[in-house]
From TrEMBL:
<dbReference type="InterPro" id="IPR002781">
    <property type="entry name" value="TM_pro_TauE-like"/>
</dbReference>
<dbReference type="Pfam" id="PF01925">
    <property type="entry name" value="TauE"/>
</dbReference>
<dbReference type="GO" id="GO:0005886">
    <property type="term" value="C:plasma membrane"/>
</dbReference>
<keyword id="KW-1133">Transmembrane helix</keyword>
<protein>
    <recommendedName>
        <fullName>Probable membrane transporter protein</fullName>
    </recommendedName>
</protein>
<feature type="transmembrane region" description="Helical">
    <location>
        <begin position="75"/>
        <end position="98"/>
    </location>
</feature>
<keyword id="KW-1003">Cell membrane</keyword>
<feature type="transmembrane region" description="Helical">
    <location>
        <begin position="244"/>
        <end position="262"/>
    </location>
</feature>
<feature type="transmembrane region" description="Helical">
    <location>
        <begin position="45"/>
        <end position="63"/>
    </location>
</feature>
<feature type="transmembrane region" description="Helical">
    <location>
        <begin position="143"/>
        <end position="167"/>
    </location>
</feature>
<feature type="transmembrane region" description="Helical">
    <location>
        <begin position="179"/>
        <end position="199"/>
    </location>
</feature>
<keyword id="KW-0812">Transmembrane</keyword>
<comment type="similarity">
    <text>Belongs to the 4-toluene sulfonate uptake permease (TSUP) (TC 2.A.102) family.</text>
</comment>
<feature type="transmembrane region" description="Helical">
    <location>
        <begin position="104"/>
        <end position="122"/>
    </location>
</feature>
<feature type="transmembrane region" description="Helical">
    <location>
        <begin position="211"/>
        <end position="232"/>
    </location>
</feature>
<keyword id="KW-0472">Membrane</keyword>
<feature type="transmembrane region" description="Helical">
    <location>
        <begin position="7"/>
        <end position="33"/>
    </location>
</feature>
Amino acid sequence: MELITYLGIGAIAGFAAGLFGVGGGLIIVPILYVVFTQAGYDPSVIMHMALGTSLATIMITSISSMMAHNKNGAVLWNVVRNLAPGLILGSFLGAGVADILSGQHLQIIIGLFALWVAFKMFKGAKVAVDESKSLPSAPMQMLAGGGIGIASAIFGIGGGSLTVPYLNKNGVVMQKAVGTSSACGLPIAIAGALGFMFFGAKEAVHVPNAIGYVHIYAFIGISVMSFITAKLGAKVAHMLSPAMLKKCFACLLTVIGCYFIFKGFWH
């Protein structure tokens, strides 16, 4: 029964990720939060479990997304190589930071982040890319990767909403920014998920079928289904107006953001 629930979440998250072109993290985290609460898990670790499990599932979805973008030649591998060390170190550290924060603080932080992404999407994120700009030096890219990695682990996301604007700002055209960001999601997700397992294991978390802060059944169910439905979501996205899609997603994120902020302050 439990596995069926997670397959359902995966189907929704994958479809939404394909539809809105955003990693499923911002959708998976709130749904898992509700499911884990219903399952009666220890409230102090629910938010951590939702984040750790979300990152684990992004490992699978980012591979699928990265392969599709790579086929279209949209992944700048030299940039991925420069960012990767920072992303890996940052995500692992980010999991450690999340471990120190209370569930309430995490809710407020993620709520604010969801509202920020919603605001940017609603504005239409029409970033005029200045192609005369070029990316900073490799060490500076690595530093930027560190910042993106830390934030991504704390938010339980693959980093697209941070990597894409960073690349755009430095003269990378949108298609390549998205493609490169999809490849960057993999090191973020692996290091972040391992971090949540490691720090969670040290906390001796008592949740059935979990390693540290990663719920194994949820990881399997969500990964399997989202891998399948992401492609379907992407197909549907091509039939609809991108501006309308962004506005719909922005509204959804606003609801999620307000919900988490409310929960965080209300406890």
